[in-house]
Amino acid sequence: MWTYRNLLLNLTKRDLRIRYKESFLGFLWTLLNPLMFLVIFYIVFVIIVPQGIPNFVIFFLSGLLPWTMFQNSMMMTTNSVVGGAPLLKRVAFPREVLPLAVIGANIFTFALQLVVLLAVLLALRYNFYSWYLLLTIPAFVVEVLLLVGFALIFSSLTVYLRDIVHFMELATLFWFWVTPVVYPVAQVYTRFSQHHLPFGLVLLNPMVVPILAFQRAFYNAINPLGPVKKAGKVVGYQPVHILHNWSMLWYLKNLGILAIVGVILVWIGFTVFGKAEGNFAEEL
């Protein structure tokens, strides 16, 4: 893979060019996508069914951006080998480059969206400065490891079973709602405690800890003050439980466990891909 790093870079650039080819707005679409989700969920969870989350925009975006990178990468990489069939049949190169190039393009998109989030934080003068910002680095690395492993597995299997593409659309939709992106994790922790269920069950979802790390880094508010309203008027303020009061060590420990899982998943991905690619040309 290191030998073909230039090919990987060129395919990543090609993926970005094709994605926005002949598009009037170009890369602005990368910003409009999360903004559209923000508007929809703001209307639902702030206006229609208010959840009482202070600074909902920042809370939602801090979890949405890493989730969007994960969801888009999962859906796009699944069909990457099938979509790259013309190139695959003409040129000899490591086939693993195809799904990895898609991940690279989505990392670039994520970086653009992250710049916008930082601009919003600065414009609103939101207090997000803390040591927890360092969590974004291991959280990002863990997410990429998980993506590479999943991408190699599903992209190779899709060559033989095309239904995986349609399954992935439903799977990522379900996955979104079982990940605390829209709702506060403190609420989940409380409900599990009330029903005598271990919170560790939630952590079996590999995207929970990276999302929580990004929320802790940028939203950075465990119990912010939320308005108390009576007859439509604000009569006071009270703490709202949003994030659980876990220490930096808790995040690093769980991210470390996920990193080990991610490395194993990458190894499995390369193994599965290597065994499956022998018949790619015939199947495609």
What does this structure look like?
The chain is mainly α and 284 residues long. It is built from 13 helices and 2 strands, in the order H-H-H-H-H-H-H-H-H-H-H-E-E-H-H. It has helices at 5-19, 29-48, 56-78, 80-83, 85-90, 97-123, 136-158, 163-177, 185-194, 200-203, 208-218, 248-276, 280-283, and strands at residues 225-230, 233-239. A two-stranded antiparallel ribbon has the order 1-2. It starts with a helix and ends with a helix. The model has no long low-confidence stretch (mean pLDDT 86).
Which word captures the global form?
Answer: elongated
C-alpha end-to-end distance:
23 Å
Fraction of helical residues: 55-70%
Oligomer: single chain
List the helices and strands in order: HHHHHHHHHHHEEHH
Poorly predicted sequence stretches spanning 5 or more consecutive residues: none
Q: What is the gyration radius calculated from CA atoms?
A: 21 Å
Mean pLDDT: 86
Strand composition percent: under 5%
Largest sheet: 2 strands, antiparallel
Q: How many individual helices?
A: 13
What structural class is derived from the secondary structure elements?
A: mainly alpha
Q: Care to count the β-strands?
A: 2
The side-by-side strand order for the widest beta sheet comes to: 1-2
